[in-house]
Design goal:
The protein has helices at 13-30, 44-48, 54-72, 77-94, 99-107, 109-134; strands at residues 33-34, 41-42. The chain is mainly α. It has one domain (13-134). The termini are far apart.
Length: 135
C-alpha cells in the first residue's frame, strides 16, 4: 500500500489532529493503493467511481468532509470556495462513465483540497507565531 505523500507542515496544536485527518482522508481517497509494476496510485475515489451513483455520492461526501474540517480550522472563505469548486468539478466530471474515472485518477481533488487546507493551516500557524513574537 502506498504511503501518504501529503506533508502537514507546521500547524497549531489546535489543528494538528485535524490536519492529520485531512491528510489521511485525501490519501485514502486518492492514492491508497499502488498498481504493481507501473507505480500508478489509486484510491477509493477511483475504485468507488466505478459504481454508478453510489460511488460518486460517497466520494463527494469525503470531499465535503475535507472542506468541513478546513472550515472548522478557520480557513478563509476564498480557500473554501476553491475547495468547493474542486469537489464539484470532480463530482460532475467524475460521473461521466469511463472518462470520469480517468479524470478522477488524474485530478485528485481530495489531494488538491488537502494541500489547500494544510497550506492555510500552515499560514495560520505562522501568523500565530508572529503574533506571539510581538507580544
Amino acid at each position: 500500500m502506498a504511503e501518504s505523500s501529503i506533508d502537514i507542515g507546521k500547524v497549531t496544536d489546535d489543528n494538528e489532529a485535524r490536519a492529520k485527518r485531512i491528510a489521511r482522508v485525501a490519501n485514502a481517497f486518492d492514492s491508497r493503493f499502488e498498481v504493481p509494476g507501473i507505480g500508478l496510485k489509486l484510491g477509493y475515489d477511483s475504485l468507488l467511481g466505478l459504481v454508478p451513483g453510489i460511488g460518486d455520492l460517497v466520494t463527494s461526501a469525503a470531499g465535503g468532509y475535507v472542506i468541513y474540517e478546513a472550515a472548522k480550522s478557520g480557513a478563509r472563505k476564498r480557500i473554501l470556495a476553491r475547495m468547493l469548486f474542486n469537489t464539484v468539478l470532480d463530482s460532475t466530471l467524475g460521473s461521466v462513465p469511463l472518462l470520469g474515472d480517468i479524470f478522477d485518477m488524474a485530478f485528485r481533488s481530495n489531494t488538491r483540497n488537502a494541500k489547500l487546507a494544510l497550506a492555510e493551516m500552515n499560514r495560520q500557524a505562522a501568523e500565530k507565531g508572529r503574533e506571539e513574537l510581538i507580544a
